[in-house]
Amino acid sequence: MSQNNVYTNKVEEEYMDIVSKNAWALVYQKLGMSSQQFCYTWYEAKKPENKPLNRYRDVNPYDHTRVILKRSERDYINANYVTLGRCNRRYILTQGPLAFTVGHFWLMIWEQNTKAILMLNKVIEKSEIKCHWYWPQAEGEANKMSFNDVRLEVVLVSEEDCGYYSTRLFKLRDMESGASRDITQYHYTTWPDFGVPTSPVAFLQFLKRVRESGMLDPTDGPPVIHCSAGIGRSGTFCLVDCCLVIVEKEGIENVNIQEMLLEMRRHRMGLIQTPDQLRFCYQAVIEGTKRLDPNFKDEDEMEESIYVVVNEEEAPPPPPPRAESLTRAPARPLPAIPASESLGSLQLSGGADSSSSESSPPTPVARSRSSSGSSASSADDEDDEPRVIADSVGGLGEDLVRRRRRELAERVSSMKRKAREAERWHALKRSLYKPLTITFGFILAGIIIYSYVKH
C-alpha cells in the first residue's frame, strides 16, 4: 500500500466513519452491550477465601479460562489465559500483584514456563499504589527477594532504561530443586491509567522491541501481561498485537478490530476500558500497517515536541467503575486524537469536533478494605496525561492549541467549583443531621409519653 494512498482500506474507512459521526462512545457502548450477552461464570473469584485476592471488586477472572496454581495452598489467582488461534497468540492477562499475592504471581510464571513479563503501569499513579513492587530494587544476590510460601526466589540481574520504557532481566530460582530460569520484564512507564500512550509511534516501537525478542511467540510459555486491573492497558496491547499479526498474515482487509475485541473478551472480562483506548487501537493498527510497507520512511518518527502535556494534577475527576465503563458512555469530552506523521491527513477529517459533548463528571465508587488489609476498589484514576496537538500535525495552529488548553483549564476549574459546592452541601447536611435527629427524638419521645399518660 502506497504511503500517499490513504482512505483505501477497510480499517481506515471504518475509523474515518466513526470520527465523522463522533461515535466512539456509541461504538464502545455497543461493544459493551454485546459483551453482556456472554454467559460465563466467575464463581471462584467470589468465594469468600478468594475475594481478598482481587485488587478490584468488579474485575474477576472467568472460571473457564482462569489460571490454576498447582504448588500453592490455594489454586486461585486473578489471571486468565487469552488464546487466539487465528493469530497464533496466547497471553496470560492478570492484575498487578497485591502485597500478599506476589508469591502467587511468581509461582504462576514458574509453573507456566513464562519467559517475559509486560508491565504497562507505574507502581504508583496519582499518589495511589496500582501494583505492589514485586521485583528486587537492586542488582545482585545480596538483594534477592525470597518467597518461602511458594519456595521461589528472584534476583535482579540487569536493568536498562530506554526512555519511556525499561527492560529488566531476572533470575527466577526454585528453592526446592535449585533450577533457575531467566525472565525478561518490559516495563512501559508512560502509559496513563484509563488512557492511551502519548503516540502510536512510541507504542509501536515498544511492541516492535518485544516482538523482536521472540517473547510473544508460542515456543515457550505465554507471556504475562499486566497493568493495574489487567484489562484496560493490557487489553489494548493484546488487541493491537493480534490485529497486526492478522495484517501480516492475511492483509489489512481481513482485520475486524471490533470482532477481535469481542473474541478477546470471551477469555477475560472488560478488556479495553474506554472509548479512547478503542480509538487508539484503530490508530495503532493503521500506523502499524503503514510501517509494514517496505517503502515506508520513518524519519523523525519519535518526534515528541508536537505534544503539549497539561499538568496532570489538574486532570478531570475519575472515570466510572472499571466494569461499568464497558457500557456507560464517557461523562467528559474525549481527548484529542494521538498523532504521528503518517496519521496527519486523518486528523484533518476529525477536526476540532471529535470530542463528545460535556456533561457532569461521574461519582467515584467508595473504596473498601478486605480483611487482609488490601485496597479493593471499582473506581480508579483518571487519564494521567490529557493532551492537545500542535500545528506541526494536521494543520492545527498555535491559536487552536492555546484555545484548547484554555477550554480544558476552564472545564477543570468548573469541575473543581462544582466539587467544592457539592462538598459544602454535604457538609451542611452533615452539620444539620445531628440536631435534627435529636429534635426528632425528643418529639417522638414526647408523643410516646403523652400517649402513655393519656391512657
TrEMBL record:
GO terms for cellular component: cytoplasm; endomembrane system; nucleus. GO terms for biological process: anatomical structure morphogenesis; negative regulation of ERK1 and ERK2 cascade; negative regulation of receptor signaling pathway via JAK-STAT; neuron development. One of its GO terms (molecular function) is non-membrane spanning protein tyrosine phosphatase activity. The keyword Transmembrane applies. It comes from Chrysodeixis includens. Residues 334-393 are annotated as: Disordered. The keyword Nuclease does not apply. It comes from the Eukaryota. This is protein-tyrosine-phosphatase. The chain crosses the membrane at residues 432-453. Residues 201-279 form the Tyrosine specific protein phosphatases domain. It is found in: Endomembrane system. SUPFAM superfamilies: (Phosphotyrosine protein) phosphatases II. Residues 11-288 form the Tyrosine-protein phosphatase domain. Gene3D superfamilies: Protein tyrosine phosphatase superfamily. Its main location: membrane.
